[in-house]
Structure formats: structure tokens, C-alpha cells
């Protein structure tokens, strides 16, 4: 298989659902491989131990929407049952677990075509062994695509644990971009709020808040889970790789704190918008009340004088019309004075 053919693999994957596969080593350039070559390599290295932390290893990225992907992984990868349970248990909370010498990770990332919608978040399942990294997803994700581009450009990690660390840092960088984008949107909404333009801002703030809440809910367990794991790392993981994973965990913690601060800021803006809307509604209701009160005297007198009965006062008076007008004006002014006085009182 030529390099061009390997790079031409589309997001649907090959016959085994493999989107891309690379043989990574410090001593040789990155070598793209297909699912058949990967199966042969794994069979040839099935008895290798995990002592050589920087020995050649495989990175295989699968499309789980392909019917054969999970079957190929189960048949050739040699991953523990915990990995396949994570694929089917329905829980998408971020976590990193250890099963003997294998790390099982469930990470959450945004879609490749992320559009600041709460539903644009998907899950990535990862299995990490000394000589193998399996990543699997159902929808294209930004972090994996960025890592794939970096590997093709020659910026490949030196070990399977380093690949997991690089993937986490790429994911953290993507979250930083999201936080920056949300911050810019909140700044614009805040400026429009201060300028008095309230067109649908509460709905826009609600969408952004739901997005941050979903991201934080899916990502928040990750630092704690990784911290517990790194207290007892696998024997094949070097101290340098463990420290890099600790640093990546700290980056996630910083991003999550920024997200929490943005949520509080959005909450305050929503309260400000709600108060402004309530104040505008109160002004409208007051104007409607005043108009109703001012129209009350003339409506009452018009009803009384419009009755078709005898004894209508001032019916024979030459100035009866102006007398009635004066009475209506007096009652109207008195009603307006009472309404305005009640408005000014605390």
C-alpha cells in the first residue's frame, strides 16, 4: 500500500472500518498501513512485552459506524473486555481506567464541523497498550483529525502513552478555542445589552450556557480519573510520559475552571436581561393602566347619557354639551393625578 493510498482513506474507513493506521517509531519515518498489514504486525508482535517504552507501536483509528470495525478490533487487537464494555455500556462520561497493562479511556470531543451547539459533542474510545493504540469513534472529531495531521507531518509521539498525552493536549487546545469563541460571543451580547438592543439575546445565552454545561458535565471527571490512574501507572509507562499526562490533566483543569467562570457570567447576563424585560413589561403595563383609567370617566358618562330614557340631565340646556365636556375633563385630570401620584410613591 502506497503512502498516497493510505492518505486517501476517507472517513468511512476501509473494509475493516480502519480510517487510518500508522506504524510509529523513533528510528524510522511514519509508515501508513492498512488493516491487513496491521493484523500481520500485531500477530508477529503478539508475544512482545511492555518493557521497551519507546519501541515501535501502532496507532489504528476506526470508524465504529462500520459494521466490521468492532469485530476486527476484538479479533486482532487483543484488548481486554473492558474496552468493549465501554463501547456498549451507553455511558459517555469521560474516564481513564486501567485493566492490567492496558489503559481504557473514554474522551469527549466536538464534531469536526462544530457550530457551538450542545449536540455537537461526540465520544472517542481509546485503548492504549505498550505497542498499540486503538482509537474509535462514530463521527469525525477535531482532536483526532488534528493529531492525524500532526503524525502525517512527521510530529509523531515516541510512545503509545505519549500519543494519548498528545491527543489530550490537542483536545484541550480545541476546548480553549471553544472557550475563546464563547467569550467573544458573550462580549458581543453584553455590548448589545448595554446598548439596549435585546433581540432574542436570552435564547442565544441559553444555547451557550447549555453548551458549556454539557461540555463540563462530560469532561469534568477526567482530571480526577487521570490523577487516580497516575498514582499507579502501568509498568511500561515511563516517568516522563506519566509527568506529561499529569501536565495535560492540569491543562484540562484550567479549561474547566474557565468554563465554570463563563457559566457564571452567562447566568448574570441572563438575570440582567430578565430584569430588563420585566422592567419594560412593567412600563408597558403602567401605560396601559393609565390609558384605561383616563378613558374611564368618558366611557361612564357616555354610557349614562346614551341611555334612551327620559330625564336625561342638561338635555334642554343650551350649554349642556360643554358642561359635560368640562365634567369629563375634570374627572380625567383627577384620575391622571391619582395615577401619577401612585406611580411616584415607593
From TrEMBL:
Chief location category: membrane
Species of provenance: Paenacidovorax monticola
InterPro entries (alphabetical): CorA_cytoplasmic_dom (IPR045861), CorA_TM1_TM2 (IPR045863), MgTranspt_CorA/ZnTranspt_ZntB (IPR002523)
SUPFAM superfamilies named among the record's database cross-references: CorA soluble domain-like, Magnesium transport protein CorA, transmembrane region
The organism's taxonomic lineage, starting at the top: Bacteria, Pseudomonadati, Pseudomonadota, Betaproteobacteria, Burkholderiales
Listed Gene3D superfamilies: CorA soluble domain-like, Magnesium transport protein CorA, transmembrane region
KW Electron transport (keyword) present: no
Keyword terms of this UniProt record: Cell inner membrane, Cell membrane, Coiled coil, Ion transport, Membrane, Transmembrane, Transmembrane helix, Transport, Zinc
Protein location: Cell membrane
Family from the record: Belongs to the CorA metal ion transporter (MIT) (TC 1.A.35) family.
A molecular-function term among this protein's GO annotations: cobalt ion transmembrane transporter activity
The protein's name: Transporter
Amino acid at each position: 500500500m502506497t503512502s498516497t493510498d493510505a492518505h486517501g482513506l476517507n472517513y468511512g474507513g476501509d473494509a475493516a472500518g480502519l480510517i487510518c493506521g500508522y506504524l510509529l517509531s523513533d528510528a524510522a519515518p511514519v509508515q501508513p498501513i492498512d488493516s491487513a498489514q496491521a493484523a500481520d504486525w500485531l500477530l508477529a508482535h503478539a508475544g512482545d512485552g511492555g518493557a521497551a517504552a519507546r519501541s515501535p507501536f501502532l496507532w489504528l483509528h476506526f470508524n465504529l459506524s462500520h459494521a466490521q470495525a468492532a469485530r476486527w478490533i476484538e479479533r486482532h487487537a487483543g484488548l481486554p473486555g473492558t474496552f468493549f464494555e465501554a463501547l456498549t455500556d451507553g455511558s459517555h462520561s469521560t474516564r481513564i481506567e486501567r485493566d492490567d497493562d492496558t489503559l481504557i479511556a473514554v474522551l469527549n470531543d466536538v464534531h469536526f464541523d462544530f457550530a457551538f451547539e450542545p449536540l455537537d459533542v461526540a465520544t472517542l474510545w481509546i485503548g492504549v497498550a505498550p505497542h498499540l493504540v486503538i482509537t474509535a469513534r462514530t463521527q469525525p472529531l477535531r482532536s483526532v483529525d488534528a493529531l492525524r495531521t500532526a503524525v502525517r507531518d512527521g510530529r509523531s509521539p515516541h510512545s503509545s502513552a505519549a500519543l494519548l498525552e498528545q491527543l489530550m493536549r490537542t483536545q484541550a487546545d480545541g476546548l480553549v478555542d471553544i472557550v475563546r469563541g464563547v467569550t467573544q460571543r458573550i462580549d458581543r451580547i453584553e455590548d448589545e445589552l448595554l446598548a439596549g438592543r435585546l433581540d432574542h439575546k436570552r435564547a442565544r445565552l441559553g444555547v451557550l450556557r447549555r453548551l458549556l454545561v454539557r461540555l463540563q458535565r462530560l469532561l469534568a471527571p477526567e482530571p480526577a480519573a487521570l490523577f487516580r490512574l497516575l498514582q499507579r501507572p502501568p509498568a511500561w509507562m515511563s516517568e516522563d510520559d506519566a509527568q506529561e499526562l499529569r501536565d495535560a490533566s492540569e491543562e484540562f483543569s484550567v479549561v474547566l475552571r474557565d468554563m465554570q467562570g463563563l457559566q457564571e457570567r452567562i447566568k448574570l447576563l441572563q438575570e440582567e436581561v430578565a430584569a430588563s424585560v420585566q422592567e419594560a413589561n412593567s412600563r408597558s403595563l403602567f401605560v396601559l393602566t393609565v390609558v384605561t383609567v383616563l378613558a374611564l370617566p368618558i366611557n361612564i358618562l357616555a354610557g349614562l347619557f346614551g341611555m334612551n330614557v327620559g330625564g336625561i340631565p342638561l338635555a334642554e340646556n343650551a350649554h349642556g354639551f360643554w358642561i359635560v365636556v368640562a365634567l369629563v375633563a375634570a374627572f380625567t385630570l383627577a384620575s391622571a393625578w391619582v395615577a401619577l401620584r401612585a406611580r411616584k410613591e415607593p
